[in-house]
Amino acid sequence: xxxxxxxxxxxxxxxxxxxxxxxxxxxxxxxxxxxxxxxxxxxxxxxxxxxxxxxxxxxxxxxxxxxxxxxxxxxxxxxxxxxxxxxxxxxxxxxxxxxxxxxxxxxxxxxxxxxxxxxxxx
Length: 122
What we know:
- The protein is of the alpha/beta class.
- The protein has one domain (6-121): STAS domain (Transcription Regulator spoIIAA).
- The chain is built from three helices and eight strands; from the N terminus they run ββαββαβαβββ.
- The strands form two sheets. A six-stranded mixed β-sheet has the order 6-5-3-1-8-7. A two-stranded parallel ribbon has the order 2-4.
- Helix 1 packs parallel to helix 2 (47-62).
- It is globular.
């Protein structure tokens, strides 16, 4: 099986440690080389959630893979700045355009994850 080059995971409005752990499990098991976490709809994030994302990035880098955050704004962006994690968790200014705006547009079934908190378009 050939790994896809990248996959985008979309967070819900609140990124808690539990949700970050679920997203991390999905990211580790998806097999894509680059995982982008779309936080454009995220209004609130917790410090433990960011800590889990740091651990995820370290785990993926050790496996020769990559993890990035896209669409960061508001309180989650401020939290990242306060904890000085900009270099540890690289942020894209926006989510890449080739990612469909709606999972229904990708031509493949979407997987709802954690009560619609994240949608993974595979």
